[in-house]
Structures are given as structure tokens and as C-alpha cells.
């Protein structure tokens, strides 16, 4: 099999290193297992969480995660926990039934990959967390669902990322004339414009 055309170290030069984001979540919440649909080759969650399962349809991603020595080398001396990292990859469309047991994960990650929460909330344990942004409307759909409770907003800073649980009522308030129903958000695939926005939002599954 030919080697991957791209790896995490080159990928993150384009998008930035999200490792500090996941480190901040790990520091604030008891997250041991994470599910990352639409991950491509973004290995950053594995620096903070001992067991992460990645899901993507992309063949480049499949080749990358199949190269276990490369994945191990990219994580070497970058993890923040003691145990050996467990990295799993599912080469599939996350909207289909995945070979994953329901209620298996502490954290579901939805970043720029569509309406992950609709398709994958079943894999999140009760009381588990969802990290979502407004790309494709996922955070906006979740904000309208009483099953989810906003517990933190994620802001970018000079040091990377910062989680805040202060003043959360100011977030996820649509600008005048910009409110949408969940059905409209899903149909259009775009989020809502808010009076105060964040890079992403952390929700807890409460229902």
C-alpha cells in the first residue's frame, strides 16, 4: 500500500494545531473516550484523550490511520496522559450505522463536518459532551434542542484556545431577524448568525 499523501503534521500547518483545544477540555472535564466523525487526518484529540475513534470516508485518511508506526511517531511525546494511546479508525460515512456500540463515548466532536450530532448522538453516553461549531449549522441545531445544555464556549486566544463557562447566556442569541428553525438549518446546511459568537461550543447531553 502506498504511503499517505498527507499526515497530521502537514495538515495542521494549514488549519493550526487544535491540541490545546482538546487539552483544555480534558483539563475541565473527565473525558477518556472521544468520537471524531469527519476527522480527516486531524490527530489532535489523541494528544488529550487516551482512546479516540476517527471516522471518515476519505481514502487519504484511511491510508494515514492504517500506517500505525506513522501515527505513533506523530503522537510521540505529545500526549498529556500516562497510558499508551488507543487510536481507532472507521472508514465509513458517519451518517450510516457504524460498527460502534451506542453510549460508548464521553465526547463527540463536530468540527466542520456537517450535522454530526443528528447522526452520532446515539454513540454518546448519557451526560456526555458534544463539541460543535456553527459550520453547517450543527451548533445551531443543538442550541434549539432541550436535550443539550451549553456548558462552555470556546474562544481562540494568542495561546490557542480558551474554555469559558462565564456569561453563557450571552451566547447563541440570534441577531435580529436571523433566527431559524432547526428544520430550516438542516435544510440549508448553514448556522445562525449570533450577537456573540465563539469558535465552538461545548454541550452536555441531558435528555
Major beta sheet, strand line-up: 3-2-1-4-5-8-6-7
Task: Report the average pLDDT across residues.
Answer: 93
Sketch the topology as an H/E string, one letter per element.
HHEEHHEEHEHEEHE
CATH class: Alpha Beta
Which regions have little confidence, pLDDT < 50, spanning 5+ residues?
Answer: none
Largest sheet: 8 strands, mixed
CATH H-level superfamily: Vaccinia Virus protein VP39
Question: What's the shape?
Answer: globular
The name CATH uses for the topology is Rossmann fold
Helical proportion, percent range: 25-40%
- Count of structural domains: 1
Number of distinct beta strands: 8
CATH architecture, by name, is 3-Layer(aba) Sandwich
Q: Hey, roughly how much beta strand do the residues contain?
A: 25-35%
The secondary structure category is alpha/beta
Rg over C-alpha atoms, rounded to the nearest angstrom:
17 Å
